Amino acid sequence: MLTKVHRIVMLFALALCQAPAWAAIDAYPFPDDEMRQQYNSLIAELRCPQCLNTNIAGSDAMIAKDLRREVHRMVLEGQSDDDIRAFMLARYGDFILYKPQLRAGTLVLWFGPGILFIIALVVIFGMLRRRNSNVTALSDQDQERLKQLLSK
User: Fold this and answer.
1) CA–CA gap between residue 71 and residue 43 (Å, rounded)
2) Does the pTM of the predicted model rise above 0.90?
3) 81 and 120 assigned to the same domain
4) How far apart are CA 89 and CA 107, in angstroms?
5) Whether 69 and 85 share a structural domain
6) How many domains would you assign to the chain?
7) Are the CB atoms for 90 and 79 separated by under 8 Å?
8) Nearest 10 degrees: Cα torsion 70, 75, 80, 81
């Protein structure tokens, strides 16, 4: 027989297991599947401004919910993907896009890692060459002394 305390503990544990189901799920209606696909692709590629590396589709932050609602409104108005991206870019900056646009302000984002990698390779090869060039050949006298030491 389960005691009253055991029953309360079990009910509490079951309630905690249901916690993920309590999260609100956005259910936006669309007149056709094309708009639904446009919406889903956009929310998957836009980054949540509050979360560091989560798209707005997978974020539970309030700002992400507002952005999903805004994208839904813009999709229903018939705006193109580029128009919606431009609006989000103007409002939230380059951070909102996982792939920022290629322009003067974002050249460092696009080419910085490659340039740093090339610089690191040049430095490493330079250090190896310098290290190998510092090795000098032993004189005949030193070689004889080395042979004597090794033969002992």
Assistant:
1) 8
2) no
3) no
4) 16
5) yes
6) 2
7) no
8) 60
